[in-house]
Sequence to fold (162 residues):
Amino acid sequence: MKQSIEPRIVAAALILGLLVLCLTAAPTDAADAVEKKYLEIREAYQEFLKKPFKDRRSRDAWMKHINALYSIRKKYPKHERADDSLYWIGHAYRQMYEVSLVKSDLEEAIKTYQELIAKLPSSNLADDVSIYIAEIYETKLDNKRKAYEAYTAAATSFRREI
Fold:
């Protein structure tokens, strides 16, 4: 005698299978959407950097790119691109300083880099930005004591990783 499976059980199993499939696919789709948005924002910023100097003098244009990058960090702090966003925000402030010569732009770069180090110390970018902080203090802000402290902190951090 053949045993037959009740149609309701088959239907329930199919629905459950589809539900599991949808739930497991959703985070990947969301992560892919964040990745795509991040790449669009970063590409727009990098295209902006290629513009002639006179076209990069608008503080509003710089802040548009900084705010777009910050939106990734703010909306998706656990996403793998959160540290990349902070890196590029700091980069943007450093580059904006080269145009504006406004000291607070460098202070914002340092603050952003320090946030990356504090919140994402295991990021592969943390040691890079530690050096950038030291370079800003040494070459732009002419603060040798803080530069020395930043270089020392970077070297100490790097030694721990080895």
Remarks:
- Helices lie at 7-49, 59-75, 82-100, 103-119, 126-140, 144-161.
- The chain has one domain: 31-161.
- The radius of gyration is 23 Å.
- The first helix runs from residue 7 to 49.
